[in-house]
């Protein structure tokens, strides 16, 4: 019995609707706690599977018809050529990233968190972006979690921001790619976590360095004139994105 002297949130203690299963918890709070413990184990794609996808005729046709290829290299060339990232560079890149991402949320509201950053928070953003831009080291998961606050807590937006400044280190990440990269198809809450992007970045970078994939990269480059000079990591991501898009397995970005 609840104590009469303490106010309690009754919604948390509301009994879960009865059903035929006797082992189902009677309270919603208990039920959600048990469900949270049953974490889904997502298995990443293998390099061999990516190689097989990259050989598909439909994927290659989609890459050759990709309209974004006419704009993407110019954005990357602009930001990667910056000698030292300053706050105005970070804000400009963020605006480009958020404009690129399809969302029902107005871009002004997505920019709002960054507009309230203190001097110290701005300095931290610049320190991490400069670290990524230097191409000396890859940002840690902790670094990514700090930087995600700048991109409205979106790992998808963060991947695009980092890709602009260091395209040979950071591939673009979104739900179309995630739906192919992980099995089973991950929930959006998992896709937006920095840990998921870390796994994706590490494996795709290994595929880009793999000598057995160099012939495939050469074939993909010949699909479009603007692909001749893009990093191999971009080619890896492009294959995954078009394959996921062709299957219609993404959710939102």
Order of helices and strands: HEHHHHHHHHHEHHHH
Low-confidence stretches: 1-14
Q: Tell me the structural class.
A: mainly alpha
The helix content is 55-70%
Count of all domains? 1
- The overall average pLDDT, rounded, is 85
* Largest sheet geometry: 2 strands, antiparallel
Short précis:
Strands 1-2 form a two-stranded antiparallel ribbon.
Describe the overall structure.
The chain has 253 residues and is mainly α. It has one domain (43-247). It contains 14 helices and two strands. The protein has helices at 28-37, 47-54, 57-64, 72-80, 87-100, 107-115, 119-133, 141-148, 155-165, 175-181, 188-191, 194-209, 214-221, 232-247; strands spanning 43-44, 182-183. It has a two-stranded antiparallel ribbon with strand order 1-2. Helix 3 (57-64) packs across helix 14, helix 5 packs across helix 9 and helix 10 (175-181) crosses helix 14. The longest helix is centred in the last third of the chain and has 16 residues, at 194-209. It is globular, with a radius of gyration of 22 Å. The model is unreliable at 1-14 (pLDDT under 50).
Descriptive keywords:
253 residues, mainly alpha, two-stranded antiparallel ribbon, 14 helices
What does the secondary structure layout of this molecule look like, with pairings?
Blueprint: H1 28-37, E1 43-44, H2 47-54, H3 57-64, H4 72-80, H5 87-100, H6 107-115, H7 119-133, H8 141-148, H9 155-165, H10 175-181, E2 182-183, H11 188-191, H12 194-209, H13 214-221, H14 232-247
Antiparallel strand pairs: 1-2
Helix pairs in contact: 3-14, 5-6, 5-9, 10-14, 12-14
């Amino acid at each position: 019995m609840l104590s009469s002297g303490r106010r309690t949130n009754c919604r948390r203690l509301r009994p879960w609707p009865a059903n035929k299963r006797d082992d189902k918890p009677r309270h919603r709070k208990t039920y959600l706690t048990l469900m949270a413990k049953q974490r889904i184990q997502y298995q990443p794609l293998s390099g061999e599977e990516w190689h097989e996808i990259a050989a598909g005729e439909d994927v290659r046709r989609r890459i050759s018809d990709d309209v974004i290829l006419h704009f993407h290299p110019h954005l990357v060339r602009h930001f990667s050529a910056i000698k030292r990232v300053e706050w105005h560079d970070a804000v400009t890149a963020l605006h480009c990233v958020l404009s690129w991402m399809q969302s029902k949320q107005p871009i002004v509201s997505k920019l709002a968190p960054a507009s309230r950053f203190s001097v110290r928070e701005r300095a931290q953003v610049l320190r991490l972006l400069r670290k990524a831009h230097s191409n000396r080291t890859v940002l840690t998961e902790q670094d990514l979690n700090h930087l995600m606050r700048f991109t409205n807590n979106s790992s998808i937006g963060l991947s695009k921001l980092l890709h602009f400044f260091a395209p040979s280190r950071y591939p673009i990440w979104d739900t179309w790619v995630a739906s192919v990269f992980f099995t089973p198809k991950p929930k959006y809450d998992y896709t937006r976590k920095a840990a998921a992007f870390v796994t994706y970045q590490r494996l795709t970078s290994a595929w880009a360095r793999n000598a057995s994939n160099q012939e495939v990269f050469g074939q993909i480059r010949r699909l479009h004139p603007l692909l001749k000079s893009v990093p191999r990591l971009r080619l890896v991501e492009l294959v995954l994105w078009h394959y996921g898009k062709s299957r219609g397995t993404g959710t939102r970005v």
